[in-house]
Amino acid sequence: MSVEDVLRTTLVTAADVRAAAARIAPYVRRTPLLRLPGERLWVKPENRQPTRSFKVRGAVNAVVRLARQGVRHVIAQSSGNHAQAIAYAAAEQGLRATVVLPDTAPELKVSAARRLGAEVVIVPPALREEACLALADRFGATVIGSDAFDVIAGHGSAGAEVVPDLPDAGSVLVPVCNGGLLAGIAVAVKAADPAIRVIGVEPELAADGAASFRSGTRTAWPVELTYRTRADGLRAPVLGALAWEHIHRYVDDMVTVTEDAIGAAARLLQRELGERAEPSGAVATAGYLAHRAHLPPGPVVAILSGGNVATGTAPAALSGGDVATSAAPTALPGGDVATGTRPLMRPEVVEQG
Question: Disordered: where is this region (predicted)?
Answer without folding.
Answer: 328-353
